[in-house]
Design a protein that fits this description.
The complex is a heterodimer of chains A (384) and B (336).
Chain A lengths: L4 E7 L1 E4 L6 H23 L4 E3 L14 H7 L9 H10 L2 E8 L9 E7 L5 E6 L4 H4 L11 H8 L8 E4 L2 E7 L6 H9 L4 E5 L8 H15 L2 E5 L3 E6 L2 E2 L27 E3 L5 E4 L6 E7 L1 H8 L6 H4 L2 H9 L19 H16 L23
Parallel strand pairs in A: 1-3, 2-11, 3-4, 8-9, 9-10
Antiparallel strand pairs in A: 1-15, 4-5, 5-6, 7-8, 10-13, 11-12, 13-14
Chain B lengths: L3 E8 L2 E2 L7 H22 L2 E8 L11 H7 L6 H13 L2 E8 L9 E7 L5 E6 L19 H8 L8 E3 L2 E5 L8 H9 L4 E5 L8 H15 L2 E5 L4 E2 L13 E3 L5 E4 L6 E8 H8 L6 H4 L2 H10 L12 H13 L7
Parallel strand pairs in B: 1-3, 2-11, 3-4, 8-9, 9-10
Antiparallel strand pairs in B: 1-14, 4-5, 5-6, 7-8, 10-12, 12-13
The chains are: A alpha/beta (384), B alpha/beta (336).
Chain lengths: 384, 336
């Protein structure tokens, strides 16, 4: 039986690698600041078992960077930059997960938006690559495993590599990344692979969609009877010409000097822990640096999952639905199999093609005033 | 095409058939009242679609015997739907709801059945509830998944997930517990559904905030409208009159609640539908989940791990327990 324990979403303000020449210094600062916040947790609240950092917690996300430059800026998993998290895990007998942009030499000319988890031995337990995002949204150029599916499955030695779940003394753990949360299929598949606690590394700015993402988080936990720990970043700090623009309370926008400067408080913060009934059991109420602590009770989850009543997971008529999914083609696999993505707009072109096909096939009905192939606004910035 | 129109959820007062020998009289009273209310709404608002709750003609009685359940079933189409058809055709509107139903050509099983009756006066869509509560021991009936192979043989390949093209959008139905299962609404979206009509039965309890979240998530992830009509006041010898939570709700395609009845009792909810805006939203690339979902990937993954299987015959709590034991053996679930 697993005793209840504390999990923490560590909501950091991310120093943004604006220029590659500052990469090492900025990553070090991000790592060190994250570690101090984690040390604070262990001093102030006692031993937490599970720490989760946000998406791209070490480099930030520079959406308009070239693929080649990203392969230089991105980290290796495992690698020397994130080794301090492995040490923290070992020293504190805890689990430490987070998100980072990643380069893997097995996939030259590509990079990934990934998540990692270290266990109490310091060993890397999970390396997860974001499954949904750039390939269908068109905001940046990371590759997703489904976009190079055949190659990915061959290189990683099987289809399960897309959905890694690790069985640990604190429960069965899995990870997902930001936009993944809005595809219920992702979490259902993880549940089928046995996941009980999902660590959601995320980077969510304020946008008209944010309130609903909150709903997605809670619905996913409820419909899969699982815990979800969402760690969002608390803000961005940019570095321009060697000068670090600090997070200034009350100042929402940095002076526009060069390149893209996001509002410091572009993130809604709101990191949280949702239990297997879909209830929030711990959350940060704001952007900025913050911690969200919450209790995880795996035994209670397992008892809940053993009941027939309201057991949405066990009651799902998956056999029926699998057949229907197989009969339909939405976003196809392998669209970047032969040629790695070069231009971030390729992602939206992929989805545009599906929408056009849906209209032709009568799955979507075009509005009366619809004109085909409306170009995406030039310079339109994407949230992640 | 109609750009804007109203939809009405009737949170009906239901007289329950406690004594099956009074079936016809009780159904007639429930139906009379429903149609009279609908008629007054038509005078007042420009309503094109009326939605009634699950089982609003017959009512739930959890003490009902298996034989009595079979006895209170109606046929769809049948006498009752013919009366509704006359009304729908006179007013040029759509009526939707769900009833306990038996096909006389297949008397061994019966279903909880959603149906839509159109201006043609006919039943234009018939949907049998998939995520049936028979597995929880709440109702001794059958889901099409329970009898999957025979169901397809009798009714055809596309019979389980029907959609109906109307001047007011592509309509589909889900019933009650179905709202908790995203795969179901996703499959309907793949078939073109734009507006979900959801007759339901929801009481008070800790699980229902989850249902409310699910309702909104279904709309956001499917870019669709969803209207839920729940029971209002219930008259039965074995049921508290205000045990239904009410809270009939209409959610828009952004996942926002458009209108909602804030409580129980007989009531009415009228909400506007803007089909043009939904269709424009579906032309946008960003966050276009039905177009972005990796259906091939998940079709593959779902096929690898059976949760509740097809063709098990009418499901029971024992079948549910057997499934949980199997999932524990297959390391999907961990035994507590």
């Amino acid at each position: 039986m697993i005793a209840p324990y504390t999990a923490v979403a560590v909501q950091t303000i991310i120093r943004h690698v604006k220029e590659p020449k500052w990469r090492d210094a900025i990553i070090r600062e991000n790592v060190n600041r994250s570690l101090s916040m984690m040390d604070y947790v262990s001093h102030r609240f006692g031993a937490a078992k599970l720490y989760v950092l946000p998406e791209f917690a070490l480099t930030g996300a520079e959406h308009v960077r070239s693929v080649e430059e990203w392969t230089q800026v991105a980290l290796r998993i495992p690698g020397p930059e994130i080794e301090p998290f492995a040490n923290f895990a070992r020293h504190n007998q805890a689990y430490v997960g987070g998100g980072t942009m990643e380069y893997d030499p097995n996939y030259p000319g590509r990079w990934f938006n990934s998540a990692f988890l270290f266990g109490p031995t310091g060993e890397l337990l999970i390396r997860y690559r974001k499954l949904n995002g750039a390939d269908v949204q068109g905001h940046t150029t990371y590759s997703t495993p489904p976009a190079l599916y055949d190659l990915y499955v061959k290189t990683e030695g099987g289809e399960d590599a897309l959905f890694p779940v690790v069985d640990t003394p604190i429960g069965r753990l899995g990870m997902l990344n930001c936009f993944d949360i809005n595809f219920p299929e992702v979490l259902r598949t993880f549940a089928m692979h046995g996941a009980e606690v999902m660590m959601h590394v995320t980077g969510e700015p304020y946008s008209p969609h944010r309130d609903i993402w909150e709903m997605s988080r809670r619905t996913r936990a409820y419909e899969n009877l699982m815990y979800i720990i969402s760690a969002n970043h608390g803000g961005y700090v940019a570095q321009i010409d060697g000068e670090l623009f600090a997070d200034t309370p009350g100042l929402n926008f940095q002076q526009r000097r060069k390149g893209e400067i996001a509002p410091v408080h572009r993130s809604h913060g709101g990191s949280k822990i949702v239990d297997f009934n879909g209830h929030v059991v711990g959350q940060s109420q704001s952007p900025g640096e913050a911690l969200a602590l919450g209790g995880i009770d795996i035994q209670a989850l397992r008892e809940r999952r053993a009941q027939v009543r309201g057991n949405i997971l066990a009651q799902t008529r998956s056999e029926l639905y699998a057949k229907e999914y197989a009969r339909h083609q939405a976003s196809p696999l392998n669209h970047w199999l032969d040629k790695p993505v070069q231009d971030r707009r390729e992602g939206s072109a992929n989805t545009r093609a599906v929408i056009d096909r849906y209209v032709r096939d009568g799955i979507y009905v075009a509005p009366e005033d619809h004109q085909d192939a409306v170009p995406e606004a030039v310079g339109r910035r994407a949230s992640v | 095409m109609t750009r804007n129109y109203n939809i009405a959820c009737i949170q009906s007062a239901i007289e329950v058939i406690d004594d099956p020998s009074r079936k016809d009289a009780v159904i007639a009273r429930n139906l009379d009242r429903s149609l009279r209310i609908a008629e007054s709404v038509i005078r007042k608002d420009d309503v094109k679609i009326f939605l009634f709750p699950e089982g609003w003609l017959q009512g739930y009685n959890h003490l009902r015997s298996d034989d009595d359940w079979e006895a209170i079933c109606i046929q769809v189409p049948g006498l009752e739907t013919a009366r509704m058809g006359e009304f729908a055709s006179r007013h040029g509107i759509y009526l939707a709801g769900a009833a306990f139903e038996r096909d006389l050509d297949w008397p061994e099983v019966w279903f909880t059945t959603g149906f839509i009756i159109g201006p043609s006066g006919k039943v234009e869509l018939r949907y049998r509830k998939v995520q049936e509560r028979n597995i929880e021991g709440l109702i001794p009936n059958t889901s099409p998944a329970d009898v999957y192979s025979e169901y397809l043989q009798r009714y055809g390949e596309d019979s389980i997930f029907p959609v109906l093209d109307t001047p007011y959008g592509r309509l589909a139905m889900i019933v009650e517990n179905d709202v908790n299962f995203f795969e179901l609404t996703r499959v309907f979206t793949f078939h073109g559904a734009e507006i979900f009509l959801h007759p339901t039965t929801e009481e008070n309890g800790s699980q229902f905030p989850g249902w409310d979240q699910a309702r909104r998530s279904r709309c956001y992830e499917g870019l669709c409208y969803l209207a839920s009509a729940n029971n209002g006041q219930v008259t039965s010898e074995s049921y508290p009159s205000l045990a239904s939570r009410g809270c009939s709700t209409v959610v828009d395609f952004q996942g926002n609640i458009l209108a909602r009845i804030e409580g129980s009792g007989e009531s009415l909810l009228v909400a506007p539908i803007d089909l043009q805006r939904l269709r424009s939203r579906r032309m946008e690339v960003r966050m276009n989940y039905p177009a972005q979902v990796k259906s091939e990937l998940f079709g593959k993954e779902f096929a690898k791990q059976v949760l509740m299987p097809n063709d098990i015959g009418p499901a029971t709590p024992e079948a549910g327990e057997a499934t949980i034991r199997r999932l524990q053996d297959e390391h999907v679930l961990v035994k507590p």
